[in-house]
Amino acid sequence: MGESNVTNVYARALFEAARDAGTLDATAADLASFSGAMHASRELTAVMYNPRIDTATKKKVVSQLTEGGDRIFVNGVKLLIDKRHSDLLFDLNEQFQKLLKKEQNVVEVEITSAVELPEETRSGIRRRIEEATGKKVDIKTTVRVDIIGGLILRFGDVIVDSSLQAKLEQLRVRLAQANIGSE
């Protein structure tokens, strides 16, 4: 079984256990927090990823760091360690968060713009997408000056590119085709 399939199986199992226990939000929060701690600490990541460090040591580190944390989350991480899959924690968190958003009927929308968008603009975009999809919208914004102006919206498999860069590229292609046809 490929690494992504293994991650999906563990994420689904952890998600279902948390849903059955009524701890989805707590499990998600602790998983995201632990993943964030791993991102922030090279030492923690090295411990979790190193196959030479025995499972007892890894579980002891997890117990110390997660004391008082969500039981489903802690048991899930310890199971990953027992099965020698502690190197999947970042991917597990990402997949778990996707499952949670789907469960909560949330769609993630990425907005790329040349400048930081005012809150009023972001709210208007959120409202329009919520009306169109019937889902809650979680917006993530990115600023890329190379798009010159306009926006690029991405949600699911849908990309709406109304950036000035894209329009200039379309114009360049049309002009190149017009030059070919005029010879």
List the helices and strands and how they pair.
Layout: H1 3-21, H2 24-40, H3 42-49, H4 55-65, H5 71-82, H6 89-103, E1 106-113, H7 119-133, E2 136-143, E3 151-155, E4 158-161, H8 164-181
Count the E strands.
4
Secondary structure tally, helices:
8
Roughly what fraction of the amino acids lie in strands? Answer: 5-15%
The residue ranges in which pLDDT falls below 50 over 5 or more consecutive positions are none
Topology pattern, helix = H, strand = E: HHHHHHEHEEEH
Distance separating the two termini: 57 Å
* CA radius of gyration: 22 Å
| Helix-strand category | alpha+beta
What general outline do the C-alpha atoms trace? Answer: elongated
Averaged pLDDT: 91
Largest sheet: 4 strands, mixed
Q: Helical percent range?
A: 55-70%
Sheet with most strands: strand arrangement = 2-1-3-4
Can you offer a commentary on this structure?
With about 180 residues, the chain is of the alpha+beta class. Helix content is about 65%, strand content about 15%. It has eight helices and four strands. Strands 2-1-3-4 form a four-stranded mixed sheet. A hairpin with a 2-residue loop joins β3 and β4. α2 crosses α3, α2 runs antiparallel to α6 and α4 packs antiparallel against α5. It is elongated, with a radius of gyration of 22 Å. The protein starts with a helix and ends with a helix.
